[in-house]
Specification:
about 280 residues, 13 helices, disordered N terminus, methyltransferase activity, S-AdoMet-dep_MeTrfase_Alr7345, signal, transferase
Length: about 280
């Protein structure tokens, strides 16, 4: 008997099947555990802010979380969700009943303007919607210690942060912290602005772009194994050679109105999405 599922739910369910059959997704076990209809309902849900929803054409939340194999029973640590909480709005309600969502923001002892603002905004978001966020846990994102107790996370996710850690020299320590946090067999998901492969990697990643092989090398040096790559967030229009680096493009528009229409037409950056695993032995 063939069952037909219509509309957005059909698309979400089809993504899980497509990734599994193609062999480029989360692997059969994890892909089958993804609740794609639930994810789609949350992506479409009223708990999301309009500004976050507007970025979906560039960020592909269903495709990304399906590729990463995030199941409703997982303990998931998101690194630096900030106060905007793009992924918080989806992952927190997705995990609240059977799993655990942990937002790892800067420690409260970090008095930088960015950290204070981000922590305050995240706290306000959590308080604003107890039905969706009351079970959100927080952790201190530290570069050289334990973010959560060792071996307790099913997944650690980081979105467009690697260039910052390269800039301050903490990248090796950060990837080592991710490795400690994960259970054996756990998933590390990394999204990053993808640098040009025909140019040397700037060790400080001042443009915001990082070569894909450089990210893979950082993860492998920490003990991870590359499991799969996704082109869900690829953007071939991104030439990666802008006056203000990746921040020239939307949503930042660092040059403000200078050539804004040109950069709007390009869209957000070309991004890699990588899935690593912590070996079981």
């Amino acid at each position: 008997m063939t069952t037909t599922i219509t509309g957005r739910r059909s698309r979400a369910a089809a993504l899980v099947l497509a990734f599994t059959l193609a062999g480029i997704g989360a692997g059969p076990a994890r892909a089958q555990g993804v609740d794609a209809p639930r994810l789609q309902a949350l992506v479409d849900g009223p708990q999301r802010q309009p500004a976050n929803r507007a970025r979906d054409p560039y960020r592909h939340p269903i495709e990304d979380l399906t590729f990463l194999g995030i199941t409703p029973s997982d303990t998931v640590v998101e690194i630096l969700p900030g106060g905007v909480g793009y992924w918080t709005e989806i992952l927190a309600p997705y995990l609240k009943d059977g799993g655990r969502y942990i937002a790892a923001n800067p420690p409260k002892t970090d008095t930088s303007e960015e950290a204070v603002k981000g922590n305050a905004a995240l706290a306000a978001k959590i308080a604003s919607d107890p039905a969706d966020y009351a079970k959100v846990d927080t952790a201190d994102f530290v570069h050289d210690g334990n973010i959560v107790p060792s071996g307790t996370a099913d997944a650690v996710l980081t979105f467009r942060n690697v260039h910052n850690w390269m800039a301050d020299g903490s990248a090796p320590a950060v990837f080592a912290a991710f490795f400690r946090a994960l259970k054996p067999g756990g998933i590390l998901g990394v999204e990053e602005h993808r640098g040009r492969s025909d140019q040397p990697q700037d060790p400080l990643a001042k443009s915001g772009y990082v070569r894909q092989d450089a990210v893979i090398a950082l993860a492998e040096q920490a003990g991870f194994r590359l499991a799969a790559t996704s082109e869900a967030n690829a953007n071939p229009k991104d030439t990666k050679d802008y006056p203000a680096g990746v921040w020239t493009l939307p949503p930042t528009y660092r040059l403000k109105d200078v050539d804004r229409a040109t950069y709007t037409a390009i869209g957000e950056s070309d991004r890699m999405l990588l899935r690593f695993t912590k070996p079981k032995s």
